[in-house]
Amino acid sequence: MVFNCNKSCDARHCLGSKDCDVFYGNCTGGCQAGWELPDCTTDCQDGTFGPGCPSKCSERHCKGDNSSCDAQNGTCQHGCQPGWTSPSCNIRSCPPGTYGLNCSYTCNCDVSRCDAVTGCSGGVRFCYKGWYGTRCTKENVALLKTTYQSSYGDAILPNSSVLAVDGNRKVDDADYCILTGAQPYTWWEVDLGRNYYIHTLSIFFLANDTVRKDGVNVYSSLFANQSNAGHLCENITLSNQFVTFLNCDDTARYITLYGNTSMDFCEVEVYVCEPGTFGDGCTQFCHCLNGPCNHNTTVECAGGCKPNWTGQACSVCDSTHYGELCTEDCSTRHCNGASTCDVITGRCLGGCTVGWMNPDCKTTCQDTYSFNCNMSCDARHCLGSKDCDMFYGNCTGGCQTGWELPDCTTECQGGTFGPGCQSKCSERHCKGDNSSCDAQNGTCLDGCQPGWTSPSCNIPCDSHTYGADCTFKCTQRRCKESTTSCNRVTGSCEGPCQNGWMGIDCTGCDGKYGPDCSLSCDDRHCKDGDAPCDHVMGSCNGSCRAGWQGDTCTDNHFGVSCKSVCADRHCKGDKLCHHELGYCSGGCLSGWTGFTCIEAQAVTDKTDSLGIAFGIVAGILFVLLVIVTSVLVWNFS
User: Which CATH superfamily is domain 138-273 in?
Assistant: First the structure.
């Protein structure tokens, strides 16, 4: 990470995009040739070259010294070693039809199937006639060679012994097979033309005649051997399959089949590994320093191995190299920590360092980044440019809201929010708890403290507003000296109020609240008799008495959807109003009836008679009162 912003983005030697992230300045498109990743401000060092300095001078195949080279392209000043091409001599160049180390092997298949490193591909069906094996490296050296036999069966053409080496493997037609005479001790022989180390051979017997194969002996020899002498490869019995494969493991020029009586068979194939190969399928390569490996006893290289190879047969890479041809240097891998080097794959046991992938950690990330390239560029939540450097995947244009820099794959943590998680929940000015918040925008669910506004309460009121969410205007205060600006938190007048107004911002009323102090605090029905009375809203800041609701406990309704008004009832005595039923617990006033005393009482004849009677009694009592009073006054006089 760059500290104090002390490095210039323009001083980098980027290739492609010049986006410059504020932390590392990484060149997301790579470096120009001769400059090192990640920010392309350092020349290639320690014998490296190319864009990002991934190539080592010592890995070229120049004539002469390889330890140092031009940092731009690693050009070999004196040309390439044999088998290599390109200005830096790092591209193998084998002539068509050749392959392998130093292009020393020949492909025994069509050129289109010949890989310059591994040879033939596709299996035996693409091999030239007489060649077998998965890489066409096993040759039938008996094909079309000179043959002899002791005698010929009746009606068999002379010189038909060649039918056993004509390459035709048909075993169901005697016309393609040889047949000796019926006399005792018959033989057939093939001259391979020169000495070979013979590991395996095969005999294709006539499928519908199993008797004649019984007792056939197979011999190998350095000289013509038309008898039961020489090196016995195997004795054939009735238990052998009609296509019999057998080991000989001898150096010989002649193969002789010897029988006690008449013999018939269709093909004899003698297999020899291509020089420089060995094994049952001739698929292993020996890289001897002075020629092909020796097969006389065990496979070995008597004169030692070519560079980078080791083992008795020089068939495995030494401890510092790997790959098909042991040309890959273990020291050029980008392993995460110390690791052994597998001689085949070069696998890094602990994975790769940032920006590298594949088992040997020598391939740069593609649309991925970080350790082992295990992070997807598409999984980031970048804002703007989506360039993705192979090391850290930094979002050079910043993150979408709710995601952390530098690569925008981690949601905001530790009480932060917003683009790049640059804002802290604790720095908001919400009502209530500030310690945690929504990672996207940090919205304050209960509103803002006085003096602040915005969903996250992090924007101060301007000079003309004040209070929670900046809902009050300075010009609406009742200050004696009116001003257009004021304290954004309290709206203080910093002086006396106009007549009839009070409070620090001269908007309060004595025992009243609401617009123009038009509502009385005493008309509220707060459960707490000492509940405060905010001069603006008049809130009880608590629960209400039974039957009342709302912030100021003045909303007195009941019934379905609270559509009935408690004040419309005509209750006697206690006027508590149940929020569901609205019944009058003390009964109704005269003239009213019903559960909620909202039904007027009907007038009847009985009611009128009682009224007249009460009027007569009242009149008599009044007359009597007047008489008694007069008598008392007269007596007193």
Answer: Galactose-binding domain-like (2.60.120.260)
